[in-house]
Amino acid sequence: MTEEEIIRTTTSLCPECLQQIPAELYVDSETGWVMMRKTCKSHGDFKDKISINPDEYKWAAEFTEEIGSKKNNTSKPEFISSGIKPTKNGCPYDCGICENHKTAPCICLIDVTNRCNLTCPICFANASAKGYVVEPTFDEIVQIMRHFRSMKPYAPPMLQVAGGEPTVREDLPEILKKAKELGFIETMVSTNGVRMGKSLEYTRKLQEAGVDAIYLQFDATDDPETWKKIRGVNLWPLKKKVIEHCREVGQYGVMLVPTVARGVNDHQVGNILDFAKDNADVVSGVVFQPVSLCGRISFEELMDLRYTTSDLKVAINKHMNGKFGKFYPLATTGKFTKLLAWFDSKPEWAMLSHKDCGFASIVVVNENDEWEGIDNYFDVEGLIRWTNKVYDMVYNKEVPKPTGFFKGLNLSKFGIIVETIGKFVDELSDVGYRQIMKAYYFAGLTRYIKNPQKILTNKTYQSFAKLVFAPSLESAGTFLHTKNLMIGAMHFQDAYNFDLERVQRCLVHYGIIDPDDRSKVLEIPFCAYNTIHRENYERKLALKDEEAEKPEVIQSKIESILDSVED
Known about the structure:
Blueprint: E1 5-13, E2 20-27, E3 34-40, E4 44-51, H1 54-67, E5 107-111, H2 127-130, H3 138-149, E6 158-162, H4 172-181, E7 186-191, H5 194-198, H6 200-208, E8 213-217, H7 224-231, H8 236-249, E9 254-257, E10 259-260, H9 269-278, E11 283-290, H10 299-305, H11 309-319, H12 334-343, E12 358-365, E13 371-373, H13 380-395, H14 430-445, H15 459-469, H16 473-478, E14 484-490, H17 500-503, E15 508-513, E16 521-525, H18 526-541, H19 551-563
Parallel strand pairs: 5-6, 5-15, 6-7, 7-8, 8-9, 9-11, 10-11, 11-14
Antiparallel strand pairs: 1-2, 2-3, 3-4, 12-13, 12-14, 15-16
Helix pairs in contact: 6-8, 12-13, 13-14
């Protein structure tokens, strides 16, 4: 038997009592997998699978660390939130947010209701199952949004409204409009699509309210039994209607969001990818979410259901015949997102999550309707390193020297005297400096484009050219509207695989009204909220004078809706 390799140690939770316990991530000598093991003095030993590919797992950690800057604090961005509070009981029990958090959030997530028009077996929040309703008022939602927009210097640019099912609220369009007024660059609605599939006019109303992305629950294609296992009813006819309605109203930001469980719908990964490809005029990508497991289960049951991002990577590459390319952790795009925001004169933000939280990459549907990895078009690692170098220069207020490919560039049109190149000049205007760095970035970026002559004939190259000639968050979005699909995953944690290092770098923070002081807003990292805090806070915030609809009533409504949707 080979000796077990310890990869790192962290702090986790006991799945029984939810108390902090130390944990090790190691390469198991029998399976060859990366596993987590931990021991609770009161409840014994626990193990969970983290990755089936230890080499890829270690590469992702090393690459993320390598491209992170040690010259400045961009690996630990500072942010100021009125919700920061000192640690009392220890992380992750003091979320609010506590002083141990290391990463500014990119997404403000608000559950605008826990009511729903489905009764899914897999759900974080369901009023029909819990027996009480939690629904902040419009003014409270605005209060939460203002809290997040007031964070300095990194206010989250994105708002995601979820639930429950957010479309059961009649004022959802007004919420989205208010979010835009408050400065959120992108608004997203996480929905099962029931109401959108039922009503073209409602889909249009969301579009007119300014929604930028529809995160559509999408667990299978034409497989009624799988739908019934996961959602209790066959939603396939309705999902197709949602896509038709989005196409008709001009909503091109649909992200398919499958919850994946082993032995339940993991056989649908390829079908979902093909559906995205066939509808790439409307669908911007797929964000897979391996299922989070709740309740007490045995190790054998855990292994039967546990589906990791490494399992997903195998399934994707198998379906694409290995054409996906490398799976880059979200954290490797941290400085790229910051640089795009700076180029666009927008407040900076960064995807500086923990490398285990998820991955994302672009795949291309070429002229022959075939999958192609982005690596066929660009030197991705080179591009990441170049972007990081330019961002570090911006962060340190450096000006490039007139050497190499930059030497012949005429800077006079930017209002810059050539003699000033090579040193930072205090009187250099922000606009002038921004233009210089855009030109410098593009001049260097061309080195990482493979076959640049195709810019004249290939739509992928053309959309990328728009991105580099006029870099901005908007042009980055346009890049996904030309048969370029973003394929990624977010693996949310549960008590079995809980890793405190991941929580402390969470980018997605729930915003809730503090039930003990309604003048305050709490912000809580996604996995900490769903694993530890949700039930306690929701019971305190529940509307005492309302009752949740009984499951059988909701089921009757669902069947009525589906009967009216033509296949």
